[in-house]
Structures are given as structure tokens and as C-alpha cells.
């Protein structure tokens, strides 16, 4: 049975929102393709109703994704772990069997042309701002319904980008660009794509440990998008990915001493997670820093708003791996707490306080008066 992270299981078990035209009997599509291996993601609004039903309302045959009928359930809110795992498995295996190729073929061409990625070999996946398939399509829903769906599901997308290995997100069209900006991603205009008398805006940004590249002309069907302009967009995407130093299969390069860079600073929990994860993948050092004659010295800092948090040099590899396992299960945005240390001083920072975290040396420079959440 496939491993299902806790945040994914929670999303799959969420009740169908009332009054939002979700396709009856459909399951949330948390990803199209294998997110365990992908480093690139295309991003859209929501799954097509044709993933589950034909234009005349009949069930798609052969089936593409799990349905209430295939699972033998009337709701997913009480689904067993096995049923939840089956939903995720069929999402992971989507491109192995009967994908909706009419929709995905243009994106596949884009991926192969720009960065050499593919849905078929597991280097790319498709994600959506909303995981529910709707009928009518998203653009035909009333404004309040669209806002309700986006508000309910955007946090899940944010968690995916923070927790998984996607390092490049491609945004197809002005609508998706606008929605991503509303999530807090700072997208700035870059050199436009131009061909003959046609042009398209290109935007770039970085957030959640990933590079974002978008274009405002929806491919392949936007009015006025000629083949020449499409190729120009491809070329600009390829160039921006190169500028961002994106590589499909990055070669791990360990620091010469195996330690995290001294005095490194991160500003979000996602950045801290990414830094620690990268260290475990590129180094075999037993601690994050050079212990020398005294390991209890601050090695890296996390600037959490106005609060500075430090990890000491002697924070052990085993402790970091325990944290990464916890984050994989619960997500990186679980609230952290400041608790009392062994001497009663309230300055120890922990990602969980239900068990002893051996080798985890994370503190606030100044003690708090009482324990509390960060």
C-alpha cells in the first residue's frame, strides 16, 4: 500500500463542498502523476469533468481515476486508510493507463521542449489550485463559488509545494498567474515573448522552494496565439529556467566539510525544511555544524517574524532525520512551540512536544516567560 502523508489523507477525506457543482461520485485529484519523483509541475485551475464523465454525462470508460463506485463508498469522509491509499495510487499512476491526452498533450510538448521533463517518465506532474472536478467548468462557475473553492484548496497546494520535491512550477495563462499572486507569490514581469506582431507577457518568481515561470496567453487555444508565438513562449520559458539554474536531475554536491554553511539564515519554515533536507541528501556529517571543542554554539538562524530562532552546531543528523520524517507525515506548517529546557528555562523550540527530541538543539536567544506557540 502506498504511503499517504497525513496532509494528503486529510485532503482526500474532506467533505464535498455544498453548492459548488462538484462532479457527483468523483474523488479529489490531489495530483496528476507521480509526485514522489517529479521536480516540475504544470499548474491549472481544477480537473476537467471529463476525467470522470463524458460530455453526455456517462461515466468515462475505461476509468481514469478512483470514484465512489470503484471504491465502494458513499462518502470519503469515513474512508479507510486502504481506500485513501487507492485514491492516491490512481493519481500517481494516472499517466500509465488512460490519461485525458487531449488536454495534457500540449503541456507534455511544452515540458519536453523547455526543460526536458515529461509526465510519462515521472519527472513532471500536473497540480491544480482546486482538486475537485466541477461541471460546469471552473470558468463558468459563479464568482462566489470560484472564490469558495480556491479559498478551501489553496492551502493544500501550498503544503504540496513546501513538502514535495517540485522545484519548477509552470503557469499557463493569465488566470492562473493572478490566482498564484493572490496566494502570496511575488511574480514580476520578465522579458516578454515576441514573434512577428504578436507577444505574450512572461512572469517569474520564487516561493516555497520553487521557481515559478508563467505566460499570460493560454496554450494552446488562446485567441491570437500563432505557432510562432508559441515557440517564442517556449524559448523564453527555457531561458528563464536556465537563469534560475533549474536542472531536471540535479547532482547532489556536498559541502567540502559536510556542514551547513555557518550563519545561514532562513525566513520561513519551508526554507528551514528545504535547507535541512538538502543537507541530509548531500552530506554524511553527524551534526549540522562543526562541533569543535563546544557544540552548543548557534550555527544557523531562522528569522520567524520578529522572533529569532537558532539551531546549534551539535544538532544531530538523527534528530534532523526525525524532523524530516515528521514533516513528511504532518506537513511543514504544523505550529512550532517554545517549551522549557531541562533546566526549566523556556527557550527550547520544538516542532512537537509530545515526546523527547534527542539531539535537537533549537532555541530562542532570549527565554520566554511561559511556553507557547511561535
Structure description:
There is one protein chain. The chain is of the alpha/beta class and 374 residues long. It has two domains: 6-243, Uracil-DNA glycosylase-like domain (Uracil-DNA Glycosylase, subunit E, 3-Layer(aba) Sandwich); 264-373, no CATH class. Helix content is 30%, strand content 18%. The chain has helices at residues 6-12, 68-71, 81-92, 101-114, 143-163, 174-182, 227-243, 269-282, 317-330; strands at 40-44, 124-128, 168-172, 188-195, 198-207, 210-215, 264-266, 298-304, 307-312, 337-340, 346-350, 362-363, 372-373. A six-stranded mixed sheet has the order 2-1-3-6-5-4. The protein has a four-stranded mixed sheet with strand order 7-8-9-12, covered by helices on one side. A hairpin with a 2-residue loop joins β5 and β6. The mean pLDDT is 91.
